[in-house]
Amino acid sequence: DAKTTQPPSMDCAEGRAANLPCNHSTISGNEYVYWYRQIHSQGPQYIIHGLKNNETNEMASLIITEDRKSSTLILPHATLRDTAVYYCIVRPLNTDKLIFGTGTRLQVFP
Amino acid sequence: NAGVMQNPRHLVRRRGQEARLRCSPMKGHSHVYWYRQLPEEGLKFMVYLQKENIIDESGMPKERFSAEFPKEGPSILRIQQVVRGDSAAYFCASSRGRGGDKNIQYFGAGTRLSVL
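^ Those are the sequences you sent over. The predicted structure of the assembly is below.
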C-alpha cells in the first residue's frame, strides 16, 4: 500500500534534465522520502533521500515542496544508462520496510 | 549494489525441492531485509532480520518459507517444497541500523529462482 503517486512513464532526451514527480500528500511530519531505481533485472539502487530540505548528491537532486506533499527527483544530465524504473517511497515511522509502488518508467532516448 | 552479496544468482529447482538463498550484508551492516519480485510485478517486502532475531516477518508466506540470520555467516531464505508460483527474483538488502540515515537499504543483485 504505497503512500505515493507517480506517473507510470516518462521520456527524456539524452543530455537533458529528467524531472520525476512524486505526490505524497499524506506524508507525516517525520517521514522521509526515499528514491530508488531499478535498472532492468538488477537490484534496486538507492539514489537519494530527504526529510524537509532539498538534497543533492553525485547522482541526483531532490526537491521537496514546503508543505512536503510532493517532491521531484532531478537527474541533471540524463544518459541512456539512466533508463530504469524510479520508485518514490515514503517509509512509515513505525516500520523499517520499504513499500514499493509501481514507480515511473523513465526512458532516455538518444 | 556492490557490497551486498547474494548467491546463487540463478537457481533452478523442481517442484517439491528445497531452495536456499544466501545473502551476505555490506560490511558494517547488521540488518537484513528480504524482498520478492514476481514477474512483471513490484517488489514486496518479506522479512526483516537482525543478527539472530526476526524483527518483522509480516510479508512472509505462512507456510514453507523461513529466514534466519545467524551470529556467524550469511542470512538464509529457505523455501521448502517449492511450487511454480515461487518463481521470482528474491532480493536482499542491508542497512547499518534503524531510523534516519542508518536505515538506508542497499540491495544485492538478487537470486532468480525458477521452479520447473
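Chain B has a mean pLDDT of 93. The longest strand of chain B covers residues 43-50.

Shout if you want it in another format.
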